[in-house]
Amino acid sequence: MYILMVELRARPERLDELEPVLRALAETARTEPGIVCYAVQRREDSPDVFLLCEWYRDEAAWETHMALAPVREALGRFDALLAAPPAVTRCAPVALACRPA
């Protein structure tokens, strides 16, 4: 598994623009066979912060994801939309208990 946790802090004046970009990324992820889970959350105590949990089958699946045109387009917009660079943490799985919603 190749797992990333990503924290994105929106510029206050661009907050309404970031969420649709992240929703579109999640829709793109639905069609990728190498993605195990791609979840976008928003912090309740800090609504300008989004947390992405990205589970890929392996690093090659992540590389495939990053090369897709919709992903490259979204990343190209991040400078204008984000107040700070994305904070990316690589994780190792310990335990998992998930069910489809």
UniProtKB/TrEMBL annotation:
Domain of life: Bacteria
InterPro entries: ABM_dom, AI-2_Isomerase_LsrG, Dimeric_a/b-barrel
Alphabetized Pfam families for the sequence: ABM
Ranges for domain ABM: 2-90
Chain coiled-coil ranges: none
GO molecular function terms noted in the UniProt entry: catalytic activity
SUPFAM superfamilies referenced in this protein's UniProt entry, alphabetically: Dimeric alpha+beta barrel (SSF54909)
Protein name in the entry: ABM domain-containing protein
UniProt source species: Castellaniella defragrans (strain DSM 12143 / CCUG 39792 / 65Phen) (Alcaligenes defragrans)
